[in-house]
Design brief:
Blueprint lengths: L2 H15 L4 H20 L11 H13 L4 H20 L26 H9 L6 H16 L3 H5 L6 E2 L4 E5 L5 E5 L2 H14 L4
Antiparallel strand pairs: 1-2, 2-3
Helix pairs in contact: 1-2, 2-4, 6-8
């Protein structure tokens, strides 16, 4: 079986039996064509049924050398795995050469944070002459001093605020409870807001 023949059958399988969208079919087929093109560039005469795990490892290494992101590499490997699953299902192959291959893990990126001057500008832009402004200042002070998620702040109850001790009891992801310190500025603005402004909003 030649590459064009295998790719054509794979394309038909994705469209007719898997009922994938045209964009998804194109993405899967493009992944397989990348492998075929690499084999040709490397002058490796291996048809789709002759590709080995070692060849596939070399192909993935070549993608890394091209500085493709781990996400792009994982996407390509996913398409190739689907292709060989199809060949196995059609009884064209007995052993899946992709079986032991694992996609590179995407690195975890820390979220962007505001600099101190940015925070000062943000706080300074709030109109403290209005009740809404005082509430916004209290909210931002709590977020800034404690590092709470917005969802955690929204779920925060007054009974879980311990001003004198300087901490809050927070219910986070997975219903896990934790104690979170709260800064003096946040306490001051919360007292001011809760002490008189809140009841008028």
């Amino acid at each position: 079986m030649t590459w064009p023949q295998a790719i054509k059958q794979f394309d038909g399988y994705l469209r007719l039996e898997k009922s994938l969208s045209p964009n998804s079919v194109e993405a899967y087929v493009r992944d397989v064509r990348k492998l075929h093109q690499w084999l040709e560039l490397e002058h490796l005469k291996a048809g789709p049924l002759q590709v080995t795990t070692r060849l596939l490892r070399d192909f993935l290494a070549a993608l890394t050398e091209l500085n493709l992101s781990s996400t792009s590499q994982a996407r390509t490997l996913s398409g190739i795995k689907a292709f060989y699953e199809f060949l196995i299902m059609e009884d064209l192959l007995k052993i899946d050469p992709t079986d032991t291959l694992e996609a590179p893990k995407a690195g975890r990126h820390l979220p962007d944070t505001l600099s101190y001057p940015d925070v000062e500008k943000l706080l300074g832009a709030i109109d403290l002459s209005t009740g809404e402004g005082l509430r916004s200042r209290a909210v931002l002070e709590v977020l800034y001093s404690s590092g709470l998620r917005v969802s955690e702040l929204c779920d925060l109850k007054l009974s879980n605020l311990y001003f004198e001790q300087g901490f809050m009891r927070v219910l986070g992801k997975g219903n896990k409870e934790r104690l979170v310190p709260i800064g003096r500025e946040a306490v001051k603005h919360l007292h001011f807001y809760l002490g008189g402004v809140r009841q008028h909003l």
